[in-house]
Specification:
- There is one protein chain.
- This protein has helices spanning about 5-40, 55-65, 85-95, 100-110, 125-135, 150-155, 170-195; strands at about 45-50, 80, 115-120, 140-145, 160-165.
- By secondary structure, it is of the alpha/beta class.
- The chain has one domain: Glucose-6-phosphate isomerase like protein, domain 1 (Rossmann fold, 3-Layer(aba) Sandwich).
- Strands 2-1-3-4-5 form a 5-stranded parallel beta sheet, with helices on both faces.
- Helix 1 packs parallel to helix 7 (about 170-195) and helix 2 runs parallel beside helix 7 (about 170-195).
- It is globular.
């Protein structure tokens, strides 16, 4: 095996997937930024969830909002539903892992809040249930998916935003999700701070 060629192919495939995503994701990304800014300006908060690498993306996004991304500003109201091990294990033990995010959305989400739901396949059962709970509690949803969007893509409302990476490969989807997180953070900061460039 030529390891250098294999690594080089990963870079080339990642760049191509990112390039392919520009046309399909730029406009919905702008819509997601506007939806998130509207939520925050309206005294709402953003709840974020996902599993594995998507959990890391949810936490990364929330850290950039509560802390800062690239510009100085006050902290913004966001909460990762992936970080409280006592809640996660209690709910999983008592009700099943499928409900670990749904229970938190029902307990913490209020009308005017927004759920950032991340699932590379769009089929993660606990993220699907979180989206269902968000709709029942009148939260808007921004979904980050791939592989055609899966069940989550099918259940989104016209008032939600779907950011579906045009790839079937998990690694490529996660790489673009990381870029999407940065685009969301930058867009939020630019709109809130009135950046013109």
């Amino acid at each position: 095996m030529d390891l250098i060629s294999r690594i080089s192919q990963h870079f080339a495939d990642s760049a191509q997937t990112t390039f392919d995503a520009i046309e399909t994701l730029a406009a919905p990304l702008a819509g997601a930024v506007e939806l998130m800014v509207g939520t925050l300006v309206g005294n709402g908060k953003i709840l974020a969830c996902g599993n594995g690498g998507s959990a890391a993306d949810a936490q990364h996004f929330v850290a950039e909002l509560v802390g800062r991304f690239e510009m100085e500003r006050q902290g913004l109201a966001a909460l990762a539903l992936t970080t409280d091990s006592s809640i996660m294990t209690a709910v999983a033990n008592d009700y099943g892992y499928k409900t670990v995010f749904e229970r938190q959305v029902r307990a913490l989400g209020q009308h005017g809040d927004l759920l950032l739901a991340i699932s590379t396949s769009g089929d993660s059962p606990n993220v699907v249930e979180a989206v269902r709970a968000a709709h029942e509690n009148e939260l808007r949803v921004v979904a980050l998916t791939g592989k055609g969007g899966g069940k989550i893509g099918q259940m989104l409302l016209d008032t939600d935003v779907h950011l579906c990476v045009p790839s079937d490969r998990t690694a490529r989807i996660q790489e673009v999700h990381a870029l999407i997180v940065h685009c969301l953070c930058d867009g939020i900061d630019c709109l809130l701070l009135g950046v013109e460039e």
